[in-house]
Hints:
It contains ten helices and 14 strands. The protein is an alpha/beta fold. The protein has a domain of 208 residues: Rossmann fold (3-Layer(aba) Sandwich), CATH 3.40.50.150. The strands form four sheets. Strands 1, 4, 5, 6, 7, 12, 13 and 14 form an eight-stranded mixed beta sheet that branches. It has a two-stranded antiparallel sheet with strand order 2-3. Helix 1 packs antiparallel against helix 10 and helix 4 runs parallel beside helix 5. The longest helix has 21 residues. S-adenosylmethionine (SAM) binds next to strand 4.
Amino acid sequence: MNQRHYFGSSETERKLGYLREYLTAYSVALKNKNFSRIYIDAFAGTGSRTETRAVLPIMGEGEDSVVEITTPGSARIALETKPEFSLVLLVERDQTRIAGLRAAVKDYPGSRAHIREGDANDVVQRICARYSWHSERMRGIVFLDPYGMEVSWQTVQAIAKTEALDCWYFFPLSGLYRNAARDPAKLDASKIEALNRVLGTDSWRTEWYEEPEPQYDMFGELIGSARRVYDVDKIEAWVRARLQTEFKGCVLKPKRLYHSNGAPMASLFFAVSNPHKAAVKLATDIAGHILKAGISSHV
Length: 299
Ligand SMILES: C[S@@+](CC[C@H](N)C(=O)[O-])C[C@H]1O[C@@H](n2cnc3c(N)ncnc32)[C@H](O)[C@@H]1O
C-alpha cells in the first residue's frame, strides 16, 4: 500500500459494512441468473482507509497514544466480494490515490477490475450511456461516496435511466443544511449553484423557505423576513421524494449517519432503478434487511 487515505470515523465503517453486506448478498442472489454483474465505484479513493485511534496506556503508565488502523475501503471490499463481479470499475481523479488503486487491483489477480481516471460525474454518465443494459443482460451497483456536494443531479439521472443499476448514495445532508442558510439573504451565488447542482432544481428556494405573516412596526414598516422552515428531517424527506422522481424501482428510507459531535452528517440512500417487481423485491429485501439489522461500528 503506497498511499494512505485518512478519512472517516466509526460511521464510515458502518457505511462500508452496509456496502460489504449488500455486495455479497447481491452477488450470491444473482449468481445463477445469467446476468453480467458490474460494480461501479464512482469515488473509489485508494482502496483502503486509514484511521487514527487513541489507545489507553497500559496499567496507568505512560501517556495516551495513537495507533493507525488501515482497513479495506470500498474498492477492496468490491474486489474481495465472492462470487466475483464480472466487471469492477473504479473511478478516481486524484493521481496519488489512483496509484493506491493500482496497487489494490494488483492484490487481486484475475479480478476484472479497471481504473477510470477522471471526474466521477463525466465517467459515470459515460458508462451509463455506453451499455444497452437490458439487452446485454447487465445488472449492477453504483456506489456514490463523495466527500461533499460533488455529485451532480445529471449523474443521478443517468444512473436511474439505466433501469439496471442499484445505487448507494452517501448523500451530503450537512452540505445541504449548511449551504441553505436559514436567512435567505445569506445565500450567495456559489451556495445556490452548489445546491442546484446536487438537487437538479432550484425549487428548494421556494419550498424550503417561508415568508412570515405580515407584521408592522410602530411606524407602519413591514418587519420580519423569510426564513428556511425546513429542518434536517424535512430536507432529508424532500431529497428522498426528489430521488423517487428518477428511480422508478424504489428509494428506501435512508440511514442517517452523524458527526462525532452528534450533528447529522449524511444520509445513506439506497435506490433501485429497475422498475420490474422481481428486481425491486430482490434489491429491497436485501438492502432493507441490512439497513434494519444495522451494522455495529466495528465490523
Ligand atoms: C470519501 S472518499 C471515497 C472513499 C472510498 N469510497 C473508500 O471507501 O475508500 C472520496 C474520493 O473521491 C475522490 N473525488 C472527489 N471528487 C471527485 C470527482 N469529481 N471525481 C472523481 N473522484 C473524486 C477523492 O479524491 C476521494 O478519493
